[in-house]
Amino acid sequence: MFLFLGWSYGSMGSIAKQLLFYLTLGGCGIWAMYRMFTLNGAIKKCNRLAATQAGMSADEMMKLNLI
Predict the structure, then answer these.
(1) How many CB atoms lie within 10 A of CB 19?
(2) Rounded (5°) CA angle 61-1-35
(3) 13 CB contacts (<8 Å, ≥6 apart)?
(4) Measured in whole angstroms, how far is the alpha carbon of residue 35 from the centre of its chain?
(5) Would you give the end-to-end CA distance of the chain in angstroms?
(6) Separation of alpha carbons 34 and 47, rounded Å
(7) Can you tell me the distance from the alpha carbon of 63 to that of 25, in angstroms, rounded to the nearest whole number?
(8) Other CB atoms closer than 10 Å to residue 26's CB: what's the count?
(9) Whole-angstrom Cα distance, residue 8 to residue 4?
(10) Cβ distance 32 to 3 under 8 Å?
(11) 38, 2 contact by CB (below 8 A)
């Protein structure tokens, strides 16, 4: 449901993309297919940003496989 309802955009700070997802009805499934292949990278990017804001060093982020 997270993927097919567009919730992945909103939970990662892209509210505008989530609203566009709803307005276009998920691009008739095209957005969901696209997101299926890009979700892993988006999660890593979001986690990397959170780790940077928390003050983690590059060595700590490397241990968590964020770099």
Answers:
(1) 13
(2) 55
(3) 46
(4) 9
(5) 28
(6) 20
(7) 39
(8) 19
(9) 9
(10) yes
(11) no
Positive or negative torsion for Cα 55, 57, 63, 66: positive
Tokens 């804001």 belong to 53
Distance CA 28, CA 18 (A): 14
Mapped to the 3 state alphabet, what secondary structure does 12-48 carry?
CCCHHHHHHHHHCHHHHHHHHHHHHHHHHHHHHHHHH
pTM as predicted? 0.69
pLDDT class of 3 with cuts at 50, 70, 90:
low
Which pLDDT tens digit goes with each residue over 32-65? 788 888 888 888 988 899 999 999 999 998 998 8
